[in-house]
């Protein structure tokens, strides 16, 4: 310590006085632990859900309406355009 | 005539100082930058106008200033001072965030943790410059690149620095596209920037529903100080993903977050009175804020390179996405995408970068909880 320039010594002393290095180390360990645990949990989640799905199969979340005879994709696109225009024009 | 003369004494002209003029220029500059350069306009326009509001001097007996007890602005500022607005903003962010990319590639969560090193190294810098520990913690959190989190922590630990810290945090968030690219380029080789990552896997709806509940419980158990921020973030996300509360999710991500952003922006801006804002301390906070952003970016990139040492060929991470670990959603992810396209016009990194980006939001809220916990006995 004594071989370091005075400015550096003063800087290290002010960090040390507030236990800055300890807090930095502890803070980083806690942050990595929290996010690491989240990471681990979401890695395991698909495996847990696989087991759950055996007993409670997941329902389809496809909310798209069923096709109606006679309504082509062009008609759907035109309805979409009109709806979007009305929404964005504030009418 | 004497009525006119006495009225002139009450006008702002009679009480104007050079500091007020400087602050008005800063406020106008924010507005111009937001409108012409599109730098975070939703934040810089309210903050810029708030700066103008806060620097039109008035007589203290008029009770119109933000620090005048009982004034309208003072009531609005209450939500900032008491840390009410940041969790509400987190609710809206949760309701608009898609965590799929993070769920599909869990290891990228660690990049969000690595980027938080900027907070802790800046904290050390602030201690060296003579700030008290509470002030140093509040300044360090600027490196989380998360305005609401910065406001939340400084309102708890150093309310007298709230204005400078909030303005620094939001200003640097707006400057992410300027600050990050040179650091990212400096720390990566051309070969690394060309790394192509596997496309994310499809995530089931059930995973999306379980994720906010599990992630909240993990964070809250380890860092209870982060409950209000992380709790609202994941609650908002559950509203979005459950599909049965669409109305609530819609309100949280549109009307609610907009209302809170308006009030928060304008009051934070108005809190920057020249007399309290134009100080040596503010200059140091701005310098430390820039340092903080740079270190956070570098930490994310370097940690991605470190992870690559242990990953098989074909599984490697493009280190550019490490920079997205500083939250600043979605700007830092966009920067990673832009830098990736610069190296290879067909390499789209946006989806991959969103994973560390949203992990960074969680990470900075966790760090805020950790730092707050250090002060609460």
Key terms for this structure?
heterodimer; A: 91 residues; mainly alpha; elongated; B: 377 residues; 72% helix
Write the layout of secondary structure elements.
The complex is a heterodimer of chains A (91) and B (377).
Chain A: H1 6-17, H2 20-55, H3 73-89
Chain B: H1 2-10, H2 12-15, H3 18-37, H4 41-54, H5 72-81, H6 85-96, H7 100-104, H8 109-114, H9 117-128, H10 133-140, H11 147-157, H12 162-174, H13 176-187, H14 190-193, H15 205-222, H16 227-241, H17 246-270, H18 274-277, H19 280-308, H20 331-343, H21 350-375
Helix pairs in contact in B: 3-4, 4-17, 5-17, 6-11, 6-16, 6-17, 9-10, 9-19, 10-11, 11-12, 11-21, 12-19, 13-19, 13-20, 15-16, 16-17, 16-21, 20-21
Low-pLDDT windows of residues of chain A: none
Total strand count of chain B, please? 0
Give, in order, the helices and strands of chain B: HHHHHHHHHHHHHHHHHHHHH
As a percent range, the share of helical residues of chain A equals over 70%
Can you walk through the features of this model?
The complex is a heterodimer of chains A (91) and B (377). With 91 residues, chain A is mostly helical. Helices cover 71% and strands 0% of the residues of chain A. The mean pLDDT of chain A is 84. Chain B is built from 21 helices and no strands. By secondary structure, chain B is mainly alpha-helical. The model of chain B has no long low-confidence stretch (mean pLDDT 91). At the A-B interface, α1 and α2 of A face α8, α9, α15 and α21 of B.
Tell me briefly what this model is.
The complex is a heterodimer of chains A (91) and B (377). Chain A is mainly alpha-helical and 91 residues long. Chain A has helices at residues 6-17, 20-55, 73-89.
